[in-house]
Amino acid sequence: MAAVMNVLKRSLTVSIVRGTDADGNTVTRGYVYSNVKPNATPAQILAAGTALGSLFDNELAGLTVIERASLTNE
Fold it and tell me: What DSSP line would sit under the chain, residue for residue?
């Protein structure tokens, strides 16, 4: 039997650099975009996240994708 994972829901977090704190550590803020299409490819998600990050005045610190999926046997 093969295990099959089906993505049910995705969200994308775009992290933006906001500056540094008193100790010199980078401070970031994350903006969450829900309802990313489950069938979107990693390249499409990366392109969308990069485009969203370019809308901010500050530098893009990173992108994070969170998935909720079902796991079944076939």
Answer: --EEEEEEEEEEEEEEEEEE-TTS-EEEEEEEEEEE-TT--HHHHHHHHHHHHTTSSSPEEEEEEEEEEEEEE-
